[in-house]
Amino acid sequence: MQAKDLMRGEVFTVDETALVEDLTTSLIQEHVHGAPVIDPEGRLVGVVSQQDVFFASMTLVRPEFEQGKGAGSKPPKMTVGEIMTSPAVSVDEDTDAIALCRMMHKLRIHRVPVLRQGKVVGLISSLDICGAVGRGEDLTGPSKP
């Protein structure tokens, strides 16, 4: 089995120039916990997660509260490109499923963009792998036709 057999297509992606506050709204609307980040040409440049948003907001807001400004002040606008993890860990659509699982485990990551010629064509999460195992699919078997 290969990455293309496990991936979900129609991936929610975010542009690196998008504002973090807009990303937060999009993550809620899309019911996702993170997204691949793309440049204007559609190439993968990073990944962003809810944790990235949380930690970025903490680094902006905490000094305000420590200085007594807190509730009335607004943190500066940040772009997704400023808080994303880059470079992104990704796999080619022909990557072996077992190799993918080992990599995700070793790197302690829960989602991996799948690329075809440098463009995001899918996403695999740890839940997608659990679903395949739960359905009795053989991750070591041949790719689906």
Cα-atom Rg, whole angstroms?
A: 18 Å
| Regions with little confidence, pLDDT below 50 for 5+ residues | none
Number of helices: 6
Structural class: alpha/beta
CATH H level, superfamily name: CBS-domain
What would you call the shape?
Answer: elongated
Q: Specify the oligomeric state.
A: single chain
- How far the N terminus sits from the C terminus, by CA atoms, comes to 10 Å
Order of helices and strands: HEHEEHHEHEEH
Instruction: Summarize model confidence as the mean pLDDT.
Output: 86
CATH architecture term: Roll
CATH topology title: CBS-domain
Strand percentage lies at 15-25%
Number of E-state strands: 6
> How many domains, as an integer?
1
Amount of helix: 25-40%
Tell me the strand order in the biggest sheet: 1-2-3
Largest sheet: 3 strands, mixed
Instruction: Look at the structure and give the CATH class.
Output: Alpha Beta
Description:
- The structure is a single chain.
- A hairpin with a 5-residue loop joins strand 2 (34-38) and strand 3 (44-49).
- The strands form two sheets. The chain has a three-stranded mixed β-sheet with strand order 1-2-3.
- The protein has one domain: CBS-domain (Roll).
- The chain contains six helices and six strands; from the N terminus they run H-E-H-E-E-H-H-E-H-E-E-H.
- With 145 residues, it is α/β, with parallel strands linked by helices.
- 23% of the residues are buried.
